[in-house]
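Quick look at the format.
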Amino acid sequence: MVSVHYSPEAELSMLAIALISPAITGRISVDPAAFFQPAHEHLWRAISELHAQGIRPDPVTIIKHQGLTAAQSQQVTAILLEIATYPAIAGNAEHYADVIRDRAERRRVQLALDSLRLALDDESIPAADTIAKAEGALIATTRAESVVEDALTLDEFCDQRFETVEWVVPDLLTRDDRLVVTGIEGFGKSVFMRQLAVTVASGLHPFSLRPIPARRVLVVDCENPKRIMADKLGTLRQVAHRRGVRADDRLWIKRFPQGLDLAQASDRLDLHHLCQTFTPDLLLIGPAYKLYVGGSNQREEDLARTVTSVLDGMREEFGFALVLEHHSPHAQQGSPHRSVRPIGSSLWLRWPEFGFGLAPADGTQIVDRVADVRHWRGARDERLWPSRLEAGRDGEMPWIDPSQVRRAA
């Protein structure tokens, strides 16, 4: 019996992820023809094309886009209902795509071999011709064409037209940027995140406090107690009000004190719904360790990849700048300084465009509230991040860049 090379789990998982995060159709290349089921092929093609047109794929838009008959519409609706709750993991999307491509390749090879068997049984065809035909057929089954079709010459690559850079925070963050902020416990990471949220939503540069275009900000906090957050945010709000600016409905806060497990479909959907509802220009989320349930070292690497994949998918879909809070490891025995690099998987070091930590400046203690901004990864672009922050006085923001804020004596 000839086996059918087909993985329904991979195809349904891939479609489930694409329905939630259509931007993945642009990030991961899967030829619609690689899907075994025609209905799956049509769905992937429809989601891809709708996303490219800036239309949100859903049952109505997909059916309208495809121009389906009543019977076909019922079949597509049934599949959409199935994948809406399918237990797919966004971080495994590349794996699902690999499986789909692998099974499609096997089916093509199988067809080539079937044709070869027929030719071998036909003794009127010279053996040399049969071998040449087999060689050509097997070469034709490779992905050579799809691999090279997007390759560009130097001139083509350099002459591409890109959209104008859109700043979310002038000189610091553009849309799609990723920043990971680390530091030791109790030294001001959460304060830094809250200050960034309130100032950007209120139309203030977070460190110079000069006027900037106000942006929509979503804070997803998975650690801090409600009472402390309300008190600290209230103080920041008062500082903004004294400068004549308000966040109004541009700043939204959602707490998950139990954390979010982005390896779980329900938690991914919660975060997706928040982003879809509030359409933030800037998402501040964390800390990282509360976005997954950890385990062994290998498990930590896998889950870190899942978290970054989920956040990347939503970042590409909604076009926000992303700031993630993370923790640093404890000081090593005998070392005078504590590292500010992120704890856990080395993936955190490679993933963001910018990564830095807050550490007590040399010669100071935590209580002095003077921080060096120590970059633990080489920035992918030149930005004007402060090199040092100091504690603000009464009526000022908690962290002040002394090189940018003039103070009265």
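Next, a different chain entirely:
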Amino acid sequence: MHNLLSPSPDRSDSPPAPLCGLEETAAAAPQDWAAATTFALDRARGDDAARPVLFATTGDWRRERGGLSARGLMALGFDPGRVILVKATRETDALWALEEALKSGAVAGAVATVERADFLATRRLDFAGKAGRAHAVLLRTGASNDLSVARLRWRIGTAPSAAHPFDPHAPGAVRLRCELTRRRNWPLGAWIMEQDDETHRLRLAAGLA
């Protein structure tokens, strides 16, 4: 079994790769915020190891969920010096910072934590990502059915960790349940992804690949 939804002859066995442009990610439940943030950062950097990634948050988001951890970033394979943190007062400021960074071409990708983003804002972000050859990710504070030009929309939850290869009593690789809830002109799907300790990237879970 490759993915977790009903099989379709048209569905790929692997999740779609990040696209230059806009996609959206949300936590499946409040306790899944760390998982959703991990996924959003991994999508934002794509395969570009040279350019930094921008992460824009609002004061409300930081008060509710805290900030990024340098140790956590290093566990994901991020040099904390390559993550640009923007502390915005309002969501409109976070979206502006995201757009400016994307269209500059200076970043591999950028993430903004928002509750609402109107259709015009999402269109501008999509254009900015394509112009700067960068990945734009909106990390939504909840599931949304708002009009958006985002080509991919994800719902991320935690999954039981993999078995430890040497100690049956120790946790193994971190695993996430990644459900694709929107995809233009293509089937949806859900996959269990796990962190590769060598590459520090998310991959299809061993045993499902």
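The chain is about 25% helix and 30% strand.

See the schema section for token definitions.
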